[in-house]
Write a structure and sequence with these properties.
By secondary structure, the protein is α/β, with parallel strands linked by helices. The chain has a domain at 90-153. Helix content is 35%, strand content 25%. The strands form two sheets. The protein has a six-stranded mixed β-sheet with strand order 6-7-8-3-9-10, with helices on both faces. The longest helix is centred in the C-terminal third of the chain and has 18 residues, at 169-186. The model has no long low-confidence stretch (mean pLDDT 93). Bound molecules: adenosine-5'-triphosphate and magnesium ion (MG). Adenosine-5'-triphosphate binds at residues 11, 14, 16, 34, 36-42, 195.
């Protein structure tokens, strides 16, 4: 479970997040959508304290992150995985070593690392690519490595910032399937930031629509078709719920 309580964040004089309160229940796949600059990535980064709020409380997995010292925060972050649009793999490490590095960082017992790496790569369908370097992989394969790396430490929460925005539609669908299976198999709470309605609609249960640093609304997704493109918050609500915002979560 993720709880943000009246969280605000300023960058110099710019108020990027304005007193946001949001609860995401354990096991949910939650979307965050909104126009460019609305504060989606900042909100996501507040959930693992990559951004420190100026005011407000952040609670994840029953722990108030904003009350922890650095060491306790490092410990708490082991159960919060993150993946990014551009994968953020280490170029001069093999697939195996990219995943192993996250285990090493978390102090995972050395003897058990190899088998854990293999297990995670098997889960994302890449057990045959362990010795390759990121440059030898397709975009979808790179994102699978990033997912395996995030999965290695058994996270309870997975934060995804535009995880499919660099991928073609077919590969996007495959990656979303991997994320959905992580949610289903391991009960991992997943938060997905995306500006793509189709992505949010195909995988999320509820979605928060951000506009200018605020939550415009949080709605439950209804399976209706998606029409033309627009980036007004009202448009997102309409397309996600089929009714312009009735049926609030
Ligand atoms: N480190 C930073 N320093 C200064 N301003 C920042 C910083 N990070 C974000 N901002 C500003 O805060 C606002 C929200 O940024 P954020 O990256 O959260 O938006 P976003 O909704 O993720 O946009 P996009 O869809 O383009 O990724 C933007 O106006 C951005 O310029
Ligand atoms: Mg962003």
């Amino acid at each position: 479970m993720i709880n943000l309580h009246q969280v605000s964040k300023k960058f110099s004089q710019f108020q990027a997040i304005k007193s946001v309160t949001l609860t995401i229940p354990k096991g949910e796949i939650h979307g965050i959508i909104g126009a460019s600059g609305a504060g989606k990535s900042t909100l996501l980064r507040l959930m693992n304290l990559l951004e420190n709020p100026d005011v407000g409380e952040v609670e994840v997995n029953g722990q108030r992150l904003t009350a922890l010292n650095n060491q306790a925060l490092r410990e708490a972050r082991k159960s919060i995985g993150m993946i990014f649009q551009h994968f953020n793999l280490v170029a001069n490490k093999t697939v195996h070593d990219n995943v192993a590095a996250s285990l090493e960082l978390a102090g995972y017992p050395k003897k058990e690392r190899r088998s854990r790496v293999a297990e995670c790569l098997r889960f994302v369908g890449l057990e045959g690519e362990m010795g390759k370097y990121p440059a030898q992989l397709s975009g979808g394969q790179k994102q699978r490595v990033a997912i395996a790396r995030a999965l290695a430490n058994n996270p309870q929460v997975l934060l995804c910032d535009e995880p499919t925005s660099s991928l073609d539609p077919h590969t996007t669908a495959e990656i979303l399937e991997v994320l959905a299976s992580i949610n289903e198999r391991f009960g991992v709470t997943i938060v997905i930031v995306s500006h793509e309605l189709e992505v949010i609609k195909s995988i999320c249960k509820r979605v928060t629509v951000m506009a200018a640093g605020e939550i415009h609304d949080t709605v439950t997704i209804e399976p209706t078709g998606i029409e033309k493109s627009d980036d007004r918050p009202e448009y997102f609500i309409e397309q996600l719920t089929g009714n312009g915002g009735i049926g609030h979560a």
